[in-house]
Design a protein that fits this description.
Pathway: Carbohydrate biosynthesis; dTDP-L-rhamnose biosynthesis. Catalyzes the reduction of dTDP-6-deoxy-L-lyxo-4-hexulose to yield dTDP-L-rhamnose. Its cofactor is Mg(2+). With about 290 residues, the protein is of the alpha/beta class. The chain has a single domain (about 1-155, about 185-220, about 260-275), classed as NAD(P)-binding Rossmann-like Domain (Rossmann fold). Helices cover about 40% and strands about 15% of the residues. It is built from nine helices and twelve strands. It has helices spanning about 10-20, 40-50, 70-90, 125-135, 160-170, 185-195, 225-235, 265-270, 275-285, and strands spanning about 1-5, 25-30, 55, 95-100, 140-145, 150, 170-175, 180, 185, 210-215, 220-225, 240-245. The chain has a six-stranded parallel sheet with strand order 2-1-3-4-5-10, with helices on both faces. Helix 4 links the parallel strand 4 and strand 5. Helix 2 runs parallel beside helix 3. The longest helix has 22 residues, at about 70-90. It is globular, with a radius of gyration of 19 Å. The two termini are about 35 Å apart. Bound molecules: NADPH dihydro-nicotinamide-adenine-dinucleotide phosphate (NDP), dtdp-4-keto-L-rhamnose and magnesium ion.
Length: about 290
């Protein structure tokens, strides 16, 4: 099986390079080779590589910047995945795509399921929803894996931001009224590999994916403030962490207040379930 992996230097892309290795021949590309903002570049690379499977963790993930760059965010998150899926269709290939809790408005009080109707609050969420719909419209075998609050040992993420701020400041003020599940990029990659391993057979080069949307997040729940407290504790940083309401931390993009995703469908379908968020955080930080 030949796998084309986009965004190889991103948090999830980096971990996928390693995790997918045993499952096939991985052709991992970055923005220089495959520019998601450029449809011709997307088509050219896919036609040259001729993958059996496209795995697409590349995305425009700067949530606030997206508010002032909506066209670029839409090109990368909304339009590019559809072009990939159309090219996959011509090759008889399948696709694994990633999406976000930010497709929801956060007005629910119990975890969102795959049946809940998305209603994004910000440009990033709107463009990610458009990308989901574009992949679905192509009519190819696909998985859309929705995850949340991704962190890891490299790249731009909340864990690394807090570790930096904890060194610079004696006190951190962090919003405590946004609830979600911090998810380690490595867990997302390993779960993807486990799912994929169940979907390939030596008889056919193309994976037979159980097409659909699946939530894929760590178990448990916390707030950004709770996440910060755990980071500071694990780092033995001694920084004070003060809970604040979202209204005290104004940002260009509104965030959903509640964005827990129920991962039962993933467990039911593939027998895959991620550990508690704070257990993975300890492992990652160790
Ligand atoms: N980060 C998070 O908190 C969450 C992420 N997700 C989703 O999970 C997936 C993986 O996210 P994550 O690994 O955190 O993302 P990152 O921001 O860590 O990585 C994204 C990658 O996409 C690449 N990229 C951005 N623009 C382009 C472009 N125009 N052409 C080619 N490549 C581009 C980046 O390249 P470069 O390094 O050159 O910028 C980077 O390597 C995404 O679909 C994201 O929407 C879902 C929930 C939470
Ligand atoms: C740095 C900092 C942030 N915050 C708040 C701001 C914000 O409400 C919250 C989270 O901050 P961030 O901007 O890092 O998180 P954000 O970029 O909103 O993270 C999101 O990224 C996209 C890509 C996703 O798909 C989502 O699942 C989610 O992970 O923490 C504080 O309250 N104090 C602080 O000092
Ligand atoms: Mg961010």
């Amino acid at each position: 099986m030949k796998i084309l992996l986009t965004g190889k230097n991103g948090q999830v892309g980096w971990e996928l390079q390693r995790a997918l290795g045993p499952l096939g021949q991985v052709v991992a590309v970055d923005r220089q080779v495959l520019d998601l903002g450029n449809p011709d570049s997307i088509r050219a690379v896919i036609r040259e590589v001729r993958p059996d499977l496209i795995v697409n963790p590349a995305a425009y993930t700067a949530v606030d910047k997206a508010e002032s760059e909506p066209e670029l965010a839409m090109a990368v998150n909304g339009i590019a995945p559809g072009i990939m899926a159309e090219e996959a269709k011509k090759l008889g290939a399948a696709m694994i795509h990633y999406s976000t809790d930010y497709v929801f408005d956060g007005r629910k009080t119990s975890p969102y399921t795959e049946e809940d109707i998305p209603s994004p609050l910000n440009v990033y969420g709107k463009t990610k929803l458009a990308g989901e719909q574009a992949v679905q419209a192509a009519g190819i075998p696909h998985l859309i894996l929705r995850t949340s609050w991704v962190y890891g040992a490299r790249g731009k993420n909340f864990l690394l931001t807090i570790l930096r701020l904890a060194k610079e400041r004696e006190e951190l003020k962090i919003v405590a009224d946004q609830i979600g599940a911090p998810t380690w990029s490595r867990m997302i990659a390993e779960a993807t590999a486990q799912i994929l391993a169940q979907s390939v057979s030596p008889l056919t080069p193309h994976p037979s994916l159980l097409t659909g949307v699946y939530n894929l997040t760590a178990a448990g729940r916390t707030s950004w403030c709770g996440f910060t407290q755990a980071i500071v504790e694990n780092a033995q940083a001694g920084t004070r962490v003060m809970p604040i309401p979202t209204s005290d931390y104004p940002l260009p993009a509104p965030r959903p207040l509640f964005s827990l995703l129920a991962s039962d469908k993933l467990a039911r379908t593939f027998g895959v379930a991620l550990p508690l968020w704070d257990e993975s955080l300890k492992l990652c930080m160790a």
